[in-house]
Amino acid sequence: PNMAGSKEIRTKIKSVENTRKITKAMEMVAASKMRKAQDRMRASRPYADKIRNVAAHLSFAQSEYRHPFLIKRDVVKNIGLIVVSSDKGLCGGLNTNVLRLSLNQMKAWEAEGKGISVSAIGNKGYGFMNRIGAQVKSHITGLGDTPQLEKLIGSIKVMLDAYIAGEIDQLYICYTK
After folding, report:
1. Residue 56: how many CB atoms within 10 A of its CB?
2. Residue 174 has what pLDDT?
3. Which residues contact 75 (CB under 8 A, 6 or more apart)?
4. Residue 122 — left, alpha, or beta (φ > 0 → left; ψ -120 to 50 → alpha)?
């Protein structure tokens, strides 16, 4: 039996310690970015809630005109799902929770015989949807820490156009709060 020399062991221990330090630093950077993103999201929540309230109020206020997005379809055969995830995976259960919820809901819809089309925002969601064999109509990745609306529009418009064209009868969005 050949025993490693004490110098080799010390070198190996040092190497493992350095790897641990680098991993810890990467986790801290990811946590910091996540905190900043959550802060931005929390700051925008009152604004988003107000927009939702105004839109809901307007949808009931004007009875002569109904926007096509606000008319509920009687028969639902096909469903669209927009899945929002991150591009990287150093954010705990964030992606896991969204993808698990999406998968469970998709299984329920499939059990009801409904067709499902997906738009994936973020690399993790896109990869997952491809792996499970979902029909991915559109996707966008590489949005970074501060996503720009202009980059999102194309991928979302594919789903809105599919709704207007009658290719999907309902459209859902799955994201973390």
Report:
1. 11
2. 95
3. 169
4. left
**Radius of gyration for the alpha carbons in the chain, expressed in angstroms and rounded:** 22
Amino acid at 157: K
Indicate if the alpha-carbon torsion angle 156, 162, 163, 168 is positive or negative: negative
Token pair recorded at residue 94: 């964030």
- Please give the sequence-ordered ranges of beta strands (E in DSSP) within the chain, or none if there are none: 78-84, 115-121, 135-140, 170-174
* Alpha-carbon distance values, 165 to 3, 139, 145, 161 (Å): 72, 19, 33, 6
For residue 41, name the pLDDT band (cuts at 50, 70, 90): confident
Beta-ladder partners of 82:
119, 173
Tell me the average pLDDT of the chain.
Answer: 88
3-state secondary structure of 115: strand
In this prediction the pTM is: 0.74
